[in-house]
Amino acid sequence: MLQKYLSQEKIAWFSIVIAILGIFIPMLTIDYNTASKEMVYTIGFIKYIFQSIHLTIFNLEDFYTFKLGTGDGMYMHYNLLNAFFYVLLILGAVFYLRSKAKETRLLRFVYSVIFITKVSSFILGLFSIVLMENTTNSLGVFLYVLWFMDYVVMAFYAYLAFSILKYIEMGKTFETIERTYETHTSVTLVEAGRWRRFFHLIIDDFIMILVFSASFEFFIRTEKLQTFVSALQNGLGDRVAFIIIFAFFRVFYYAIFESVLGVTAAKMLTETRVTDEEGNKPPVSSILKRTFLRLVPFEALTFFTPSGLHDKWSETYVIKEQRTGVSGAWYLLIVPVTIVVGLLIAFGIYKYESLQAEKKEQAIIQQNKEVFAHKLKNLSTNDFIKLESLDYAKSDIYLKTEEIKSDGIVFLILDAQKDYSEAKGPNFNEYSVPDFLEKIYAIEKESAKKVTISKGQLEKAIELNAGYSYSNQDTENALNIGDGKKYSIKSIETYFMPRLTLIDNYSNDKIKNVIVTNEGWKAELIKISNAQLYSGQPPIPLYKQSQAVITIPQAENYKFQITIKDTLGRIFSYEISKEKELEAVIKRTK
Q1: Which positions, given as ranges, span the membrane (predicted)?
Q2: DSSP state for residue 477 in the 8-state scheme
Q3: 322-345 residue pLDDT tens
Q4: Cβ-count burial of 59 within 10 angstroms (0-12 exposed, 13-18 middle, 19+ buried)?
């Protein structure tokens, strides 16, 4: 038995070490773009074995996780629930050590959570093996070795937590009341009061949700179990099906805890234990009867009677242990106060993230405005403006710039959804024909309707586009081209020349690759300033849909210039830049 190798100091220092590892190991990151599959799985395994607690709340991840930046716009999600329990473990270990093993409540509470977490994870893991589809995996034996080691680690943590809890329990005795009569002295065990029992209900249900949320998600989403879940939902309704699944986990929680340890997580906090009338551990049959009686509707309300229903009918009792640590109920406030503080911190982080997201959104909107303003300022007769209907109806309306006057700009209205099959064949559409807009312009330029729009109207429509939030007031700034609909500007693209687009591609800690794609006419890249080609030297050809990979030092912000020449001998200069988390943009400067 492991218990004979344990000591107060070993338990305390081991608890502090695994808590610190649990807090900081999740911050270990890896470049998933360059790492091998074996490395990704190995890092995942290392992170797993050094995290003794894995808690979640189903569908509420946004409220207890926050994003930590790992560089280059990449993030990892940090679980605050786990961190909260690791902090409790450190506090419990310090109290245990400073009190010379007299103050045990927090330490026992956290180890009980570790115990039930690992037991449930182990059983869930076995279920996942049984229910796993027959699929091949490129990692082969390596993955199965990691799986086996996972289960070994889970079993080790469960056994270690069990051993520590039993070691601490050896120093515990029951609280008793002695009554002296004329002929004898009576010693009576002290039962837990009704408010303490109500506290058990609240805390145990909370812990149960944290522990089994992942299992619940597995239960309802695993393909081979969905038939059973669907049958429950169809036959009994969603609510009853949920209650049945919840009842299953509730039975599991109490049956495992009280049959193996004689306590639950909440009872560790209040130093109480389930016993029979004589203070001995009840038989498993009594524990099971007690557990299933908890499923009786409104049974929890019987706590406020002299004896709870599941106590009375199972002939079990919840007895107080002799307190050896800090006296007074104020100690129990450590957990709820820590929870409140944790929730306030989480709320603060959530609000901070919301403000940062809003700030980023505003920066993106401003960036869009600047890009549109630059394109509008340099508008030419090679530009097509794509419109977006404000009534969300699908439309492919383009405005081809025809003439730029001082009092307005004349546009030709083109409908890319128009059926050209009779004249050009069934496959003549924007998805099948290269440079489709150029070709339909050649067809329509003599007959299509024209519209004149002032630069002021275009600028207002750009403002409307940047925010993507439309109201009755906003639509006053929308474009009207005479078809009764209102439009914003979705994009401005230049045709009849090379047309460059960007992919900001992360590479590693030292360099970044920016991929420039030519979606227009054939050209030649003749010059690069403040950057260099990934391979080779200018000049290099830029055929239609070909790419040039440009390498720059790794940084959040960058700016460089390129120059190209098309087949007509025209020279075009561009500035490519990126600011922090915003998208990289390309602007034609000449």
Answers
A1: 12-32, 78-97, 109-129, 141-162, 198-220, 240-263, 329-350
A2: G
A3: 888 766 556 666 667 767 766 776
A4: exposed
